[in-house]
Amino acid sequence: MGRAAAVALAALGADLILIGRNEHSGGRVTRVCRTRNSRGRVDFIRADLASQREVRALASDIVSRVGQIDILINNAGARFDAFRRSPDGLEVTFAGNHLGHFLLTHLLRPLLERAQPARVISVGSCAHHGANLDCGWMLEERDYDRRIAYANSKLANIVFARELAGRVSPALLTSNAADPGLVATRFALNNGLVSWLKHLVAHGLRRQLVSAKRGAETIVYLATSDEMKGVTGRYFFRRGETSPSMLATDREAGEQLWKMSLELTGLASKASNT
Q1: With a threshold of 0.90, does the pTM exceed it?
Q2: Collapsing DSSP states into helix, strand and coil, what is residue 20?
Q3: What does each C-alpha distance from 30 to 15, 54, 169, 186, 202 come to in angstroms?
Q4: Phi, psi dihedral angles at 167 (to 5 degrees)
Q5: Which residues are catalytic?
Q6: What topology is assigned to 47-270 in CATH?
Q7: Which has the minimum average pLDDT: 60-69, 155-164, 184-193?
Q8: What are the boundaries of each domain within the chain?
Q9: Could you tell me the maximum CA-CA distance found in the chain, to the nearest angstrom?
Q10: HEC secondary structure over 95-139
Q11: What is the model's pLDDT at position 201?
Q12: pLDDT tens digits for 49-84?
């Protein structure tokens, strides 16, 4: 889906910096985007958003390349069948799907705010309705359930989008979340072919899957539409505003996530109002 969004934005002539863990796949997408882009520049930087060291190196690299960022799309997402820890010792689903985006957005805020206003788009999922915070935002090994871990991380994406919108003037940047729907992609293939096929078949039999191109339409709409000027703190599905779960709008949960994320990324000592 990130590939589909990148190709669509390339066709519009945007300068793009693509980010991914896999050098080979990233290079392939970059080449496709370059063939569609007659005006803009397309680069690829390899980085694993589950590693805070790599996120910080990524941000430094981006700062050295560009003077401002008009659009930041937080799209990385993975689900893991078994409990794993990130290089920082954190549960890897939460680390990669939320904390990586949280840290990267904060590190790039000076470049975003120069755009006045920039647009930050965080990709959520209907899976967030299955979130359960009884064991906290980030699960430990004794509590691990892959569905809840993923749902909590997607809830965090939506809550982060709302919290950012409430803490930064829309004159500097707007922040919204998108639900692309259930998309037929390589999602869950990291857990093996059988797990991936089960995911596709289960949703395919219920006719819930859409193409990556269609799933990316809402993301591209939020990134480029004139109708989105000044719109912030909202949640969108199929290019229309929709309501997330009640938990996604809970102020206490939002405050808790923000404070926890600052602490886990080492930003707490530098934070003031944000």
Answers
A1: no
A2: strand
A3: 12, 20, 33, 18, 32
A4: -110, -10
A5: 150
A6: Rossmann fold (3.40.50)
A7: 184-193
A8: 47-270
A9: 52
A10: HHHHHHHHHHHHHCHHHHHCCCCEEEEEECCHHHHHCCCCCCCCC
A11: 47
A12: 999 999 999 999 999 999 999 999 999 889 899 999
